[in-house]
Write a structure and sequence with these properties.
single chain; 286 residues; alpha+beta; Hsp33 domain; CBS domain Like; 6-stranded mixed β-sheet; elongated; binds zinc ion
Length: 286
Amino acid sequence: MSADSVIPFGFESLPVRGALIHLSRSWRRMLRDHDYGALIVETLGHAAAATGLIAHSLKFDGSITLQIQSRGALRMLVMQCTSDLKLRGLASVGPAGDVSNFADLIEEGHCAVTVDNGKRPYQGIVDISAESLSASLEHYFARSVQVPSHIALVANEDVAGGILLQQVPGQPIDPDDWNRLHILAETLGDRDFHGDAGIGLIGKLFAEDDIRVYKTRAVSFRCRCSQQKTEDVLKMLGENEARETLAAEGAIEVVCEYCGQRRNFDAVDIERLFVDNVVLGPDSVQ
Ligand SMILES: [Zn+2]
């Protein structure tokens, strides 16, 4: 399996759909300009894998955004993936710095999942269980999407991966079978993504089941920032603030937190940005 892909699969004799995600290059690119602690890396990687898996299941052109906010060391996390599997994300760490367990990381945290179909975005919010992000997302699936789901996630600074199993709506499954698949999915470890993962890994995990594998889909890192959006942010900031920064620094540099792209605005650029803001008096000639 080439890394940075999603492999959808199904069980021939069980009403369960699945998908395996393996992120490598795109994941390392996402970390490139950041210096996160190990637990933040792991949580961000889990979020990347989970968001890719959910985006893969979208049946329309759009995007999904997973946002975590908490009072713990992880102040904020955003992960966004489009339905054509372009992924970006970042985390913001509070003054508590690096901590050693997930519960301290996401103290009083909640997770919002926003699905944007280009028309009316809708959002589901779940409390984050102190156990793990995957447990929290299983609650989300059960409550907001009403599809019983198992999700297993792994991440370190080289790989982020995961597996999503979902029951096919309207087709009951023997609870023992469902539980068995859960236990097998839970055995997923980051060592599984070293070397030959992919179809071989799916076969290895579910060795007793007949699996049908569908077409692999590529995932890539892609930021959606642009010159235009950056200019809009500067305009929102306001003319006074922009001119003050310009006077103090000589130029304004805006760095995208997602991708590290730097955009510079000098006096002429700022002049051009705010020329539309000039309020014309009654005698002005246009
Ligand atoms: Zn960017």
